[in-house]
Give the backbone structure.
Amino acid sequence: MEKKKELEDLLVSVSENDDYAFRVFYDLYYRSVFRFAYYFLRNREACGEVVSNVFVAVWKSRVALRRIENIDAYLYVVARNEANRYLKESRMRRRCLSFEEIPISLIDRNSPPHSEDAPDSRLIETEVEELVRRLINDLPERCRTVFLLNRQEGLSSREIAEALSLSESTVRVQIKIAVDRIVAGIRTHYPDLKLVSLLLFLFTARF
């Protein structure tokens, strides 16, 4: 309760043009906003630009901060919008790669692995984690956002519904769709892999 009051006071100070309070707010939320943006962009430099834009947007709208009940969800929605804007602009200015510029690992599916040794459990775990990230990134935008807010940031269905203007039942459906697709994707690539750890990750977060 005390921390909640401190956060509310901080937001009020920011809304009243307190530069120092905004710096405290920036330091408090920078890492979580960066992490969330990274799920969309997968590029640290791009994330740095997007996160800067997020906090610029927050500063421009600072007067409204005192009326926001869930600042975490608010920041993640702003980050999502800024990331989508960045991706849209990047697609417009992106030049096409020539065949010679495409990494051979992306076009030669029959190329041998870097090591002749059988992968150990740690390598498999790393590969599965990367696969999960790709599967998350491939989810439809709303489904991905709902899933990340729930699993990565720990927001409840009610909190997500309020932040995204959705019904709680819609949020639950989107989470289930995400879980089903991720599990199906992993079973496709690793049909013999035990999914105990994955299922613990997917089902222990709050609904």
